[in-house]
Design the sequence.
């Protein structure tokens, strides 16, 4: 396990006359070089991971932007569709109301025409009845006159 910077500072190399032990100094340098290499490798790995995370974050941010734009577009389209449907429904209702008014007006005109025709036919019926009555009365009068003129005169015989 690598030593911490505090442990390295606190460690003392064994002293010899004229300096320190070269073997101990070499070993300490090797330890420091290994620790430095390990730290450098960890730092490089962390930098690579940070870069990868930045790229991934940028990708997610772009995805979020695209999703937000898509949602806004979808909401706008939905509102436009609702507005178009409302307009179409209003147009359809207006057309239906107009057609209903036309049907009602046509039915009223037809009713008036039928009433006029019924009145005309009743007047004709009254005329025909009057004419027929006059014809029958005249025929009856002629029949009565004809019977009166054809009636034999009664001969009275004395009873005896």
Sequence:
């Amino acid at each position: 396990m690598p030593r911490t910077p505090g442990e390295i500072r606190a460690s003392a190399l064994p002293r010899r006359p004229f300096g320190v032990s070269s073997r101990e100094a070499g070993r300490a340098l090797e330890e420091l070089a290994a620790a430095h290499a390990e730290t450098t490798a960890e730092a490089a790995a962390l930098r690579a991971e940070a870069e990868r995370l930045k790229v991934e974050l940028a990708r997610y941010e772009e995805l979020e932007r695209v999703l937000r734009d898509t949602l806004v577009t979808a909401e706008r389209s939905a509102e436009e569709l609702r507005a178009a449907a409302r307009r179409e429904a209003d147009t359809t209702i207006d057309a239906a109301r107009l057609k209903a008014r036309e049907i009602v007006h046509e039915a009223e005109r037809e009713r008036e025409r039928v009433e006029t025709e019924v009145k005309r036919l009743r007047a004709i019926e009254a005329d025909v009845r009057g004419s027929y009555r006059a014809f029958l009365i005249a025929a009856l009068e002629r029949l009565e006159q004809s019977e009166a003129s054809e009636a034999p005169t009664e001969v009275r015989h004395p009873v005896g």
Observations:
- Residues 22-150 form the longest helix (129 residues).
- The two ends are 184 Å apart (CA to CA).
- The beta strands are 15-16, 19-20.
- Helices lie at 5-10, 22-150.
